[in-house]
Amino acid sequence: MTKATKGRIRLSADIGGTFTDVVLETSDQQYARKVLTTHQAPEMGVLKGINVVLEAGNVDIGDVDLIIHGTTLATNTLIERNGANTVLVTTEGFIDVIEMGYENRFEQYDINVVKPKLLVDRSQRFGVTERLAANGDTLIELDEGSVRALVPKYREMGVESIAICLLHAYVDGRHEDRVEAIFREELPGVLISKSSAIAPEIREYERTCTTVANAYVQPQMAGYLGNLDQALREMGATCPLFLMTSGGGLATVETASQYPVRLVESGPAGGAILAAQVAQECNLDEVLSYDMGGTTAKICLIDSGRPKMSRTFEVDRQYRFMKGSGMPIRIPVIEMVEIGAGGGSIGHIDQMGRVQVGPESAGSEPGPACYDLGGTRPAVTDANLVLGNLDADNFAGGRMKLSVDNANEALGTHIADKLGMTSEIAAFAMREVVDENMSNAARVHAIEAGKNVSTRTMVAFGGGAPMHVSRMAEKLGIDRVIVPTGAGVGSAVGFLRAPVAYEVVRSHHVRLNEPDADAVNAMIADMRAEAEAVVHAGAEGVETEEECHALMRYVGQGHELLIKVPTHEMSADELRGMIKVFDKVYEDNYSRSVPAMGVEALTWTLTVRTVADKALHATGQTKFNEGSRAPTIGTRKIFDAESGIYLTAQVYDRDAVTPGQIMTGPAAIVEEQTTTILSKNFRATLNSLGYIDIRRNQGDEA
Amino acid sequence: MKPSDQMKQVQLQIMWDRLIAVVEEQAQTLIRTAFSTSTREAGDVSAGVYNTSGDMLAQAVTGTPGHVNAMAESVKHFVADFAWNELTQGDVLITNDPWKGTGHLHDFTVVTPIFRDGRPIAIFACTTHVVDIGGLGFVADGREVYEEGFYIPPMFLARAGTMNDDLLGLVRANVREPAQVEGDLYSLAACNEAGGRRLLEMMTEYGLEDIEDLGQMIIDSSRKAMQDAIRELPNGSWTSSMTTDGYEADVTLCATLTIEDEKIRIDFDGTSGESSYGINVPLSYTKAYGSFGLRCVIGNKVPNNAGSLGAIEVTAPLGTIVNARPPRAVCARHVIGQMLPDVVYGCLHQAVEGMAPAEGTSSIWAPILMNAPENGARTGEFTITMFNTGGTGARPTKDGLNCTAFPSGIRNVPVEISETMAPIVLWRKDFRQDSGGPGKFRGGAGQIIEASLRSEDAFAFSAMFDRVNNPPRGRADGGMGLPGEVVSSTGTQQRVKGKQVIPAGQRLVLKTPGGGGYGAAFERDPAYVVEDVRLGFITIDTAARDYGVVLYEDLKVNEAETARLRADASA
Q1: Cα-to-chain-centroid distance, residue B264
Q2: pTM of the predicted model, to two decimals?
Q3: Which CATH architecture has domain A3-78+222-266?
C-alpha cells in the first residue's frame, strides 16, 4: 500500500448547515461524532469536533496521519452573497457579458421571471483596452494605462478581490498575466483570480462567472483555511490537511486557497465517493448512486468504480432545481442531478387535478403531519406511513411515535377528498409521483450522459432511499440494489476514501483527420507537469495514476462527448485513430454515427490522482444460501404498487440477519436509521460486508 | 369511485408525467446531436408526441414557441397526406414546406410513426432550423418562396429503416453546408426513434395496447384547466393594432380578442396585406405566436397539448401578411410573427389591467454575417448567425428584462464561439444606456453590438430587424423604448431588412431597442431611479427629464427639486 492510503489513523470533518460531522478511523475502529456548526468561526466547530473524536478514540493529534476536510462554506458564501468586495476586469466593450448571460428566460411560460442577483453589479465591472483574436493573435495591444487608471478607484472602493476575464484568454493568458502583474505591484494584498488559470475554457459567460465566483469567495476561504491549518499545527498536528473538492479529489490548503471555487458542492461529493467505494467492494461496473434525505434526492452515475464527472455546474438556482436559473460554474465536479424529493416534500393538487409533490418541503419544523409537531399538509413520510413502509411505533429507533391519524387526515384533506379517492390511494399517488419524478430524472440524466440505466446496480443510502429503492428499480427495469451499512454520516466517511487528485484543463482545437501530434503531446506533457506538481505537494512519493480526456464532436456540432485519450506520446496516426473511438462512443450514445464527418477535439483535461486502495476491491461477496431463511420479527401490511392492495410483509431486523440468509419480498428490513422495503418482486440477503444485496426474482421481466 | 378506478386514475397521471419526460429526452437527444448553431447553441428545436389522429399529447419545453405550436399543426397534415395503413415500422417522414411545417424552408419537421405489434400507436415529431437550405440564404430579400431554397414536400426520409438516399443526395446538392444539413437530418430521425423506444417501454411496463385512453385523459383535463382559467376573465371583444417596420413599407398588425365563457378567439382582420419580400407569415406560424403570449399569462402551468392549445383559436384573413399564400416569400417570417404577442397583449390589457406587459423588442435581432460576394476568395466563404436581443417590455409589477428574448426562448451564441467559427470580430456587446422606456416600471435595456471582419475586408450581412422606425410602446402611461438602429461605423444608415455590404475598414453597428415602460414614470420609486443611474442604465439627465427625479453629483436625491418636478407634472 502507498503512503496516502495506508495512513493508519485518519480523520475527516464535514461542515454542514446544522452539524459538523467528524469521523476518526484507526486501523480497527471508527468513531463518528456530530457537533453543532459554529457559523461565525467555522474552524471552532471543526476543532471542537476533532477534540471530541480524538478523546473518544483515545488518540493523540500528533499520531493522526491525515486530516480531510469538506465544507459548504464556499457554497454558502455564494448563496448568501456575503463574499468579498470584488471587481471584474474584462475586455472593453464586454462588461455586461456576465449580466446578459444567455439572453433568455429560464422559464418559458412565465413573463415574471426574476434573474439571479449578480456577484458584481455594473458599478463593479471595468473594461480595459486590449483584444486577442480567437487564435490568440493580438488585435489590440494591452493598454497598461487603462489598467493603472483603475488602481486609485479600487483603493477608494476598498476592493479585496479582483477577477480578470479577458476575451479569448483561454487560448493565451498573456494579457491577463500582465494585468495581474500591474495589480500585484500597485495593490499588494488584494487577491487576484484570472480566467486563464481558474477556468481556461471557451465560452466567455461561463468562464467569467467561474472566475468571479472564485474571486468572490477567495479572501474568506483563504483566511479560514489558513486559520484552521494554523490552529491544527498549534494543537500539535503534523500531518497534511486536505480539502475535499467538488470533483471528489483532495487538494492541499495552498491549492484550495488559490482555487476555492473548486470546493463548492464538496459535501454531496462525499456521498458519491461512498457509493463508488461500494461499487469497488462489490465489484460492480455500472452503478446508479441514489441518495435521498429530507428535502432532496441526488442521483449519480458510477462507472468502473468512479463517479461520472462533469465540468458544468450551476450554483444557487433561483427557481429551485430549474436548469438555467443559477450561476454556471465550470469546475471539475461529480455530476449529480438533484431532485426536490425527500421525506419532507409536500403533496398538493395542481390545476389539472394531478397530484404533485415538492419541491416545497416541510423540513424538520413543522415536519410531516405524522410527526405531530403542527404540520397539517401531507409529506412523503406521511404517505410512507399510511402505506406501511414506516412503522408508527418504531421510527428513529422507537424514540419518536408517528401519528397515523394525522397522516390520514392530511392526505384526506389536501388530496383524497378533492379527488374522490381514499387516503390510501392518495398516499399511493404521492409515492408514485415522487418515485416517477426520481426515476425520470435518473433516466434523462443517463440519456444526457449517453448511458443506459436499466443494466445498472443501484446503491441506495440516506434516510429515505432504502424505502423507495425497490419501486424505483421496478420503474427503471433495474435488477439489483445494494444498501450499504452506516450511511448516516456518508459524506464524512466518503471523504476518507478520496484520492489526492488534481485536474488540469486546456482548450486546444484539433481536427483529428489532420492532427498536429507534437502540439498535442507537448500540451499533455505540460498539463501533466502542472497536475503532478499539485498532487505531489500533497502526497509526495505516492504512487499516482493519470487519466486524459478530450471533449470531441463532429466538426460543427455544438455538444461534445467526453472521450478517453491515451496519456502516452501519440503519433499522428494514433490521434487519427481516435476518430474511430469517437464514432463508436457516438453510436453507443445515439444509436448511429454520422458517416463521413470530420471529428474535432476542443477541450482537454488531464487528471493526476493517487492510486485508490486496491485492497478494497471485491471484498464484498454475496451468496444466497438457498433454504436458509432469515429470522423474522413479525409481519405488517404494506401497500403493493403493482396490484394496488395491501400485502402481508415479513419484517426483518437487519442486525439479526446473517450473511447468506434469505429475505423475501414483500418485506421490511428495519434498522435504526432507515427501513429497506422489498416489493414482492425482490428478495435479498446480506453480503460478507453486511450490505443488503437485493435481487429481482428470476423470471420477472426486467 | 371504485378502488380499481382510483388506481387507474393515479396510473394515468404517472404515465402522463412519463410522457413529458419522454419528449424532454427526445429534445435533449436532438440538441446534443445537432449541427446547426441555432439548434446546438441556442436550443432552436421542438419535439413532441401525438396520438394516431395527430393530436399533440406532450411537447418538450424548448427554445421556440414558434416551432412548438406550429409543429402541432404540421403533424395533422402528415396524417392527412399519408395512407397511414400503408406505413411500416422504420418509416420516417419529412418536410420543410413552410405552410405545412413551421413557416420557412430552413425548418425541417420530421415525423415518425411508432408501431406496436405491427399497429401504429403514436407519432413522434421534431423540428429544427438547419444552417442552410440553398437559395438566397437566410435573408428577407426573396420575392417568391422558389428563390428561398430547396423545397421538400412531405415525403419519406426513410422507408423501413433505410434512409432515402435520393432525397439525401438532392439535399446535399442544393445546400451550402451539405455535411451539416445531412447530419441534422440524421439527428432528427434519431431523436424520434429514441422517443418511440421509450414510449414502447412504458407501454410494456403498464401493459397498454394503445395510448388512446391516456391521450384522451391528457387532452380532456388540460382543456378543462384552460377553460377554468378562461372563465375567470370577463366576456367581451377588444381590438388593438400596432405598426412595425415591414420591408418595403410599414406593416399594421391588428388583432381582435374575443373571450366567450371558456373559449378565446383571436382574429387578425385589419392586418396589412402580403409583402412582396420574405417577411410573410404562413398561418401555422401565426397560430403559434398568436396564442403563445396568452398562454404565458393564462393557465401557464397547463402543459402544451391539443387540449390546452385548442382552448385558443387563432384566425386571419387569407392574403394578409399573417396568412400569406404560396408562393409568397416567407424566409424571415419570424420578424413579423414574433410581434404578434404584443398585439394580442394590447387587446388583453383592455380586457383586464395588470396582466399584459408593455411592448418589447420582441423580434430576435439575428444578423447573418457572410463574406461579401466579390471577395469570398480572399476572406473565405462563411456564414454565421448570431442571436441578439433587446429589452423586453416592463411587466405590470416589475421592470422589463434587459437584453432577453421574448417571445422566442432562444439563447445567444457566445462571442468566442462566433469568432472561432467565422473570421469575424465583435468589438462590443454591452447594454445601451437610456434605451429602456421610462415608466413606474422601466422597460428592459437594449444593447450595442459592433462587428467587422478580422481582415477588415468588406463583408455582407443579412438584416432582418424591426422596431427601428416604430419603437416598442409603453403601457398604462409608460413611455416608449428607444428604437433600434442599424448603421455602419461611419454613421451611414443601413436598411432594416435585406442583404447589404459593409465596406472595407468599417464596422456594422447594431443598437437593439429598449422595451416599453409600464405605468407613469413620475410614479417610479426614486430609489430605483438612483439605482438605474448608479448602474449606468440611465443618465442623470434622463432621471430628471423622464422620471422627475433630480440627483446631486453624489447620486443623493434632491428631495425638494424632485417634489417640485413631480408636483408640476401631476398638476
Answers
A1: 21
A2: 0.89
A3: 2-Layer Sandwich (3.30)
